[in-house]
């Protein structure tokens, strides 16, 4: 669920297959890193899934980050390809020896490439914030990712009828759980628009209108949403059955 867009699992699969086929046709496969520079959207989800289907590892790139950080990530990661959209390609710095693929030019296909990927192959590459120096890349294998997602699903009881909010930045590690845990559980993803995670009025309305059942927030944002509660409308948290809060200190008062 992305604004007015409603995408089924079959539609998501076809879009991901199209991405995967284009990557394989270009020679991309195991051990390659593919940067995904797309704002939070259904397109972002399909593209990351497509990179995995091609056997490569995806590198989430936040387009709101400074050009020098983005350029560093693309260079340091030795990304083979950068996938973006026609609307966002001009926001990217030019980097040597990197090819660019625009999702607008990719045709969805029913059958994707046949690729055998093991648990030891890299699934994604995430960089640290770099607050204490240069950002450092950490490669996460498929085995590690599956263990993480399985734990999230089992520990928090994610179900096929759940609707999980996706509001983290693509460059922030929890976004991987927000995307792939609900997919693995057969649930739905409710995508917050780009920039929406800074707008309490928008987020509370989205959670209420789309009947979100699971959400993961940093305590600061949770406090902002609670402070925005409007007594004249139905409680925005009425549909929630799981509320996760982490990444910062959670005070007893807020809990």
Describe the structure.
The protein is globular. It has 255 residues and is α/β, with parallel strands linked by helices. The protein contains seven helices and ten strands. Helix 2 links the parallel strand 1 and strand 2. The chain has two domains: 133 residues, Rossmann fold, CATH 3.40.50.980; 99 residues, 3-Layer(aba) Sandwich (Rossmann fold). The two termini are 29 Å apart. The strands form four sheets. Strands 2-1-3-4 form a four-stranded parallel sheet, with helices on one face. A two-stranded antiparallel ribbon has the order 5-6. Strands 7-8 form a two-stranded parallel sheet.
Euclidean distance between termini CA atoms: 29 Å
Taking strands numbered 1, 2, ... along the chain, how are they ordered across the largest sheet?
A: 2-1-3-4
Average residue-wise pLDDT: 92
Q: Can you tell me the CATH architecture of the largest domain?
A: 3-Layer(aba) Sandwich
Can you tell me the number of structural domains? 2
> What fold name goes in the CATH topology slot of the largest domain?
Rossmann fold
The percent range for helix content is 25-40%
Class from helix and strand fractions = alpha/beta
Uncertain regions: pLDDT < 50 for 5+ in a row? Answer: none
Q: What characterizes the major β-sheet?
A: 4 strands, parallel
Indicate the overall shape: globular
CATH class of the largest domain: Alpha Beta
Write the layout of secondary structure elements.
Layout: H1 9-25, E1 33-36, H2 42-53, E2 57-60, H3 67-76, E3 81-84, E4 99-102, E5 122-127, E6 137-141, H4 142-156, E7 163-166, H5 174-185, E8 188-191, H6 200-209, E9 214-217, H7 219-227, E10 242-245
Parallel strand pairs: 1-2, 1-3, 3-4, 7-8, 9-10
Antiparallel strand pairs: 5-6
Helix pairs in contact: 1-2, 4-5
């Amino acid at each position: 669920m992305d604004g007015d867009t409603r995408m089924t699992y079959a539609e998501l699969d076809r879009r991901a297959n199209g991405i995967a086929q284009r990557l394989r046709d270009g020679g991309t496969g195991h051990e390659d890193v593919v940067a995904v520079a797309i704002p939070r959207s259904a397109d972002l989800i399909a593209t990351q899934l497509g990179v995995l289907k091609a056997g490569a590892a995806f590198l989430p790139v936040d387009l709101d980050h400074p050009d020098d950080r983005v350029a560093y990530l693309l260079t340091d990661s030795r990304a083979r390809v950068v996938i973006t959209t026609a609307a966002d390609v001009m926001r990217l710095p030019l980097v040597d020896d990197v090819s660019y693929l625009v999702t607008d030019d990719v045709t969805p296909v029913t059958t994707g490439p046949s690729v055998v990927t093991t648990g030891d192959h890299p699934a994604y590459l995430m960089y640290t914030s770099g607050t204490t120096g240069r950002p450092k890349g950490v490669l996460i294998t498929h085995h590690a990712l599956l263990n993480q997602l399985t734990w999230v699903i089992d520990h928090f009881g994610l179900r096929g009828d759940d609707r999980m909010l996706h509001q983290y930045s693509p460059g922030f590690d929890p976004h991987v759980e927000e995307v792939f845990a609900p997919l693995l559980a057969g649930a739905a993803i409710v995508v917050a628009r780009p920039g929406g995670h800074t707008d309490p009025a928008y987020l509370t309305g989205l959670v209420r209108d789309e009947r979100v059942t699971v959400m993961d927030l940093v305590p600061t944002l949770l406090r902002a949403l609670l402070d925005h509660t409007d007594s004249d409308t139905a409680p925005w948290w009425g549909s929630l059955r799981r509320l996760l809060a982490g990444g910062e200190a959670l005070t007893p008062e807020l809990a």
